[in-house]
Amino acid sequence: MLLDVHQGQIFCLNVVGAKILSLFERGNDAHTIAEQISREYAVERATVHAHVTEFIEALQKHRILQSADPPTTT
Which whole number is the average pLDDT over 17-41? Predict the structure, then answer.
């Protein structure tokens, strides 16, 4: 679960969402995160990359994540 104290909102994450957030917070870009999740869950990297990018952009849109750089789209 994520608690946004500034906006007073709570967001529930599944296991993969929590992993994406954790890896992103450690400085990994969308490409690296997608590679790792793709290997771990045996899902095509391109599919995972699209979902990872969308998830990170949604967190940024809701101001849960603030990043100077947008997620990598390669």
Answer: 93
